[in-house]
Amino acid sequence: MSEQTAETILDVRNLRTHFDTDAGVARAVDGISFSIARGECLALVGESGCGKSVTSLTIMRLLPLPPARIAGGEVVFKGRNLLALGEKAMCAVRGSGIAMIFQEPQTALNPVFTVGEQIAEAYTAHNPGAGAAAVRVLTVAALRRVGIPDPEQRAADYPHQLSGGMKQRVCIAMALVCGPELVIADEPTTALDVTIQAQILELLRQLQAERHLSLLLITHDLGIVAEMAERTCVMYAGKIVEHGPTADIFRRPLHPYTQGLHRARPGAAGEEKKRRLAVIPGMVPAATHFADHCRFSPRCPLCTAQCVEKEPELADYGGGHYAACWNTRAEGIEAWKEEPVASCSKSAI
Amino acid sequence: MERGTCGELLEVRNLTKHFPVKRGLFGAAAGQVQAVTDVSFAVGAGETLGLVGESGCGKTTIGRTLLRLIEPTSGEIRFAGQDLVPLSQKELLPYRKQMQIIFQDPYSSLNPRMTVEQIVAEGLLVHNIGPRPRERHGIVQGLLNRVGLPPEAAGRHPHEFSGGQRQRIGIARALAVNPRFIVCDEPVSALDVSVQAQIVNLLMDLQQDRGLSYLFIAHDLSVVAHISQRVVVMYLGHVVEAAATADLLSRPRHPYTRALLSAVPKRAPGTLSSRQVLGGEPPSPINPPPGCPFEPRCPLAVQACREKVPALEPMGAPGHVVRCPIVKDSALPAA
Question: How much is the ipTM here?
């Protein structure tokens, strides 16, 4: 991916993750490619069911196989294809090479161990020779670094004694304790209040700068993308439909889906308050029923005959900005603005 | 309908709800969760009042207390002039017909064993509207059509629907008894952005068609600002600021409101610099601070804030009230 001069740390090439289900093959992730440079933050944005979490779990090799099946592609982390590694080698990568922060700190932490024990466990898994006293010092330092007050006492707390924001800080401490080079944050603030979300994002930004971390940020919130990411991939129905520098994606969204997402946000129409919000009619199709042609075409206001015949490829629009659409209009789509009421009722069952 | 003639449709005065905390074998009261303390507001006919605040600020408790799904500790809830608090359940029934609620979680608020028709028609049965099954069926079909669901949805069960469609079922259920006032308790926070826009539009259309009043509860300021004419900001059970929406957004006075506005992720990249990140977390409502509830996190706090809960005082434009003695109009930079 073009102008990155820094070392590429993760390179996902044409990755396909499918699930064999009773209802047929669900092509949850279907041929996506992206790369992350050292110290960079890349956002993967999309709605529920677009395949963004499956992507992160595939990279970490945390999906049960079967029902999941890697139908093709490579995940190259620092020159090694993770999909070809044995389980033991993969274990060595998890935590110390790539770490993950999950959406719900509530369920990501084990309720029957103290948070100190859980951080220590993550550390000793990769450093079996470490002495108990040294591990304890490290644990407390890790908790202190993520902004937990009285870390010596809090290390002995169980997860239920901490608030949601504090639990997420613990998860971040745990993710960072082995010094990973890439952190995958899967909706890290979705379960948190907005003022706490601001704290956690600030913390992630600081840690990223301080340790020169690469961050793969998975979110549905364009506002978070705007704040955090240098580059953005927009996913829809298992495909990347647009990617490029974040500033460019906000200034000049090319794909009709990206444009629709922008317009559907309250306040997007500036001061024209109390107006109807622009909507994307219908909803994301089930993964077993993705079309073979353009997957957005059933909801797209620009859909033409070509769109229902052939799937568009990502095309280069300059400056590292790519979009997969036959009818891209750089000036945006006026059709979104005057969305008729009837479109709400089109949502098929 | 005496719409607009009686001024406010719903008036809440000094509403307080304290939940007892019980400990030990015999359930001795060990304290109180002060969920809602001395809250007053009014909703006019055809108006939407937004109620914002973070988890635990008491906004859901207020929504449920208005319908007496939770009994208030003290205060008045006047609906069309009648105080609902002293009424018996039987006396309350005609008012229940005029006040409905849409819940946050479309997964847990619909009975999985009932068909959509049974769910939507339940209110009709309770209030004896359309006594014959055929009439009820007709009413249900009309409602499903109005909220954008196909006629065949009536025979299906909730699990066959997506989140957005379930929320439409919840809206149809609320509309069935033809209410004048609906509490919308975070109706879109569980939904994706594009679906969220569909539901917000539906709620606004229904309001226009039927002259409904809404109490719109949410933690997302941008959605509340879009749909509401006035906004009440809550923190730890107290109203800290209330104002007309445009006034609140352009001239927020209370330090909490300002922090809340600044914490909302920005619309475009490269606008981060002005962010004021609020430290700490809301204190527990079991042992709230004796003074101003926001004092422990407040960048402006002085000694006086620790001693006494400040009063709500008018400031700036008419109808704008602020619970903070420190902020002065002149001292604030324009937001």
Answer: 0.76
